[in-house]
Amino acid sequence: MEEQVVVQAWYVPILGTLAVAILGVVGHYLRKLINSLLKRMEIADNEKEAIQALLDGMAKQQPFIKEIKAASADGKLTRDEAKKFEDAAWAYAKSIAAEGPIRDLVMKWSAERVSSLIKQLLSKFKSTSKVSTPKKPE
Which pLDDT does position 94 carry in this prediction? Predict the structure, then answer.
């Protein structure tokens, strides 16, 4: 003879309510996680655009820097000249940064932050420009 499993009727509504509550909590935290990731991606995109504006400012100053370096005895910028370069690049970045979060980000940068960013960007540029291109066989 087979045994029958009898589930008492009061378990069914409790199990249903419990399942709905668990799904609701999981859904809530999943939504928070997704929103957090989207916000981080937006901040990263804004940071990229702000740095691109600074790069554009640096590129705008490049002809003047070449002239100054060519005119100097050692071929290098003085600290004052480098500071003027940084200020001009930052001012250009401020002028072309779009309204909204990107402009706010550029405006919040301190002089030390701009100097650090420019040094990092220049070192990346120098390291990629030093890579030699393979010579063509004759």
Answer: 85
Mean pLDDT is lowest, of 30-44, 85-99, 103-117, for: 30-44
Backbone angles phi and psi of 13, in degrees to 5: -65, -35
Report if residue 79 sits inside a domain. yes
Asked if the structure places residue 70 within a domain, the reply is yes
Asked if the model's pLDDT at residue 134 lies above 60, the reply is no
81 neighbors 113 (Cβ within 8 angstroms): no
Tens of pLDDT along 49-103?
A: 888 888 888 888 888 888 888 888 888 888 888 888 888 888 888 888 777 888 8
The separation between the first and the last C-alpha atoms of the chain, rounded to the nearest angstrom, is: 93
Task: Report the domain count for the chain.
Answer: 1
How many CB atoms are closer than 10 A to CB 89? 24
Question: CA-CA distance, 64 to 85, in Å (whole number)?
Answer: 9
Residue with tokens 């691109």: 52
What is the span of the domain harbouring residue 88? Answer: 39-127
Q: Please work out, in degrees rounded to the nearest 5, the angle formed at the alpha carbon of residue 60 by the alpha carbons of 72 and 97.
A: 140
